[in-house]
Design goal:
With 90 residues, the chain is mainly α. It is 57% helix and 0% strand. The protein is globular, with a radius of gyration of 15 Å.
C-alpha cells in the first residue's frame, strides 16, 4: 500500500509543515536508526506500510519479545554490528 501525497503532507509523516528542516514529524520522532540505510528503510516503511496481517503480527511479536527482554535486544544488536551487512539492518 502506498500513502498518497496529500496524506503524507497533511499528517506530516516525513516533513514538518512549518519548517521543512525540523525533525518534528513522524519520521523525525521515530528515526533512532544508526545508519543511513536504516533511516531509508524506516522512511520507506512509513510511506509504504505493511498490509499483510501475518507479516504484521510476526513483526509485533518480535518487537514485543525484544522489548520484554532488553538483554536479548542488545545481544542481537551487537551481533549485527559484527556482520558485514550491518548497514542494511540498523
Amino acid at each position: 500500500m502506498m500513502v498518497d501525497v496529500s496524506t503524507i503532507y497533511a499528517l506530516e509523516l516525513v516533513q514538518n509543515l512549518e519548517n521543512s528542516k525540523s525533525r518534528q514529524c513522524l519520521f523525525g520522532l521515530l528515526d533512532e536508526t544508526l545508519t543511513p540505510m536504516g533511516s531509508r528503510l524506516l522512511r520507506s516503511n512509513i510511506l509504504q506500510p505493511l498490509t499483510d496481517n501475518d507479516t504484521l503480527n510476526t513483526r509485533l511479536d518480535t518487537v514485543e519479545e525484544l522489548t520484554m527482554k532488553e538483554d536479548v535486544f542488545f545481544a542481537v544488536r551487537q551481533c549485527w554490528f559484527g556482520c558485514p551487512h550491518e548497514n542494511y539492518v540498523f
